[in-house]
Amino acid sequence: MGTLTTCTLSTLDFNSTVKSRQIPNFRLPKKPKSSCFLCRRSIQSERVWFPRRSFRRLRCYSSSDNGNHEGETSSSGSSNKSTTDSVTTTTTTTASPPEAAEDTRTDDYDSDPPSVSSRPPTISPLGPAYNNFQVDSFKLMELLGPEKVDPADVKLIKEKLFGYSTFWVTKEEPFGDLGEGILFLGNLRGKREDVFAKFQCLLAEVTGNKYNLFMVEEPNAEDLDPRGGPRVSFGLLRKEVSEPGPTTLWQYVIAFLLFLLTIGSSVELGIASQINRLPPEVVKYFTDPNAIDPPDMELLFPFVDSALPLAYGVLGVLLFHEVGHFLAAFPKKVKLSIPFFIPNITLGSFGAITQFKSVLPDRSTKVDVSLAGPFAGAALSLSMFAVGLLLSSNPNATGDLVQVPSMLFQGSLLLGLISRATLGYASMHAATVPIHPLMIAGWCGLTTTAFNMLPVGCLDGGRAVQGAFGKNALIAFGLTTYTLLGLGVLGGPLSLPWGLYVLICQRTPEKPCLNDVTEVGTWRKTIVTVAVFLVVLTLLPVWDELAEELGIGLVTTF
Predict the structure, then answer these.
(1) End-to-end CA distance of the chain
(2) What pTM value is reported for the model?
């Protein structure tokens, strides 16, 4: 005759009949203690991952909490919570078949009941704990780092913006330089431009002027969007994080000082263009590497007045360049910083650093604003260069001409060919060439514009290429440009200082636009391609064999 026993496990009942006989009194090896100090029932252990370390979190669900898991807490080796807040209990057992119940019986607890003290026990983690210095470092990083997106706002945005008819979110990832934003990945359910415009309006209604929403290409996407083009995702950043800060007082002071230095370097260029009329001791000091004693600089004062036209020309090109940027940015409500001019004694200036002070709306705006400055500066430079060439070929203007070494025309293949076609073989195939100062100003302006249009980093050319062809194309163009500058193929003797300037000040690409996916169109891509091609022709030097064949400079005199 058997007896009926009942074993209750959670919400399930298992009924089994076992034979009435003596059960051997033996125990399996005891398991490590893992019981609640209040209810003596087993505690579930699960691994919790923290940055660079892992701990075990002990959870005990009591039968009195009705399965609500309200007593869950995590232990990290430094918890000082009270006993009633730190743990609750639950019962976890395993039902055994009748045959196994006849032979074995397991007991996960000790025979002696655990003592309950008035102070809560310290549950040490199985992994190494953070020390106080590390904890303080994490808190300091969170305090000094950029402010992250509010989780409550993320939930609200997902409810109000995204949906089955616009963009179905399937995954969320960190977004931004330090992961301070949220990147929503999923499936686009409409035309990307229309969906993004709708999101912009809804975001302003839901959160106000608090966040910026970016439409970017989905990272590591394995396939294209079924509607054509790349798969898109949406990134959310706070405005104070995604937008540049205002210009500070110190930046205004630095910009003013740099402008004064640029004026001085432009005047110095005008004086150096009169090298054939300068005192011999001054020329020897600047051209002879063995010269030690500096000359009296007051000897240069009489040449300042004649150097001003060239200085005005160089500064005029710089100002036209910056005005072009501002005129293109104003209608599209793009804010720009003040220009930080970079003085240079060879060209008068290396141009200026002008930063975007607002997030660009789309890639077309990036291309337009980036090209407007170089095009304006190049237009003025080309005008001065053309007028200077005409005056240089006029016999009646010999009193205003200055003698320059003919080897200077070998610094640019494009400008050297234009000069050779205008001035003729006899004038160019000589040791010195008489030219008008306007031609020098135009030459320097075109060379400076060409340097700034190189497709690398945050230069105007780099921004234009990034807007027209994307960031991956800019990386390829940038590596090629750095290689050519390092080998001296572009820019001649100016390649090294310009390359160092770009690496130090302008190497970082521009940040993405709000709509960083929509293409710019064929004609903008064509303009950027032609501009880069002209830049290469302008900065490509003329090697000796070609110069001798074309009659650009007297090669045998070098």
Answers:
(1) 121
(2) 0.70
